[in-house]
Write a structure and sequence with these properties.
The chain has about 110 residues and is mostly helical. It is built from two helices and no strands.
């Protein structure tokens, strides 16, 4: 009986020792995870802050690009209007130029008059 009691005491001591090691390991792992979580949260907070600061500037830049695009489109419309006016002027001028048939008739009139 004394041997069994002594063996059981040794096994209990071994289990207690193993349990203490596991507790220490769990505590160490938890501390490491807490540190990593704090670092990650700090990095995430910094990134959110950075994005929040950049957002107004990005919106302002987008607005400037939109304004520039509208100005460009407006200028293109003005240019197209000018081109259209020029085409109409050329068409009017071409309408004033006599056709080859009209020129032949004029030549014939001049020849007859001579």
């Amino acid at each position: 009986d004394a041997r069994q009691t002594q063996e059981m005491s040794r096994q209990i001591s071994n289990v207690e020792h193993s349990l203490a090691e596991v507790r220490g390991s769990v505590t160490e792992n938890r501390e490491q995870l807490e540190e990593r979580l704090e670092e990650s949260m700090g990095a995430l907070t910094a990134e959110i802050t950075k994005i929040a600061k950049e957002t107004p500037a990005l919106k302002k830049a987008q607005k400037a690009q939109e304004d520039a695009l509208h100005t460009f489109i407006d200028q293109q419309l003005v240019d197209m209007g000018s081109v259209n006016t020029s085409i109409q002027e050329v068409a009017r001028t071409l309408n004033e130029v006599p056709t080859s048939k009209q020129v032949r008739e004029m030549v014939t009139v001049v020849e007859v008059a001579m």
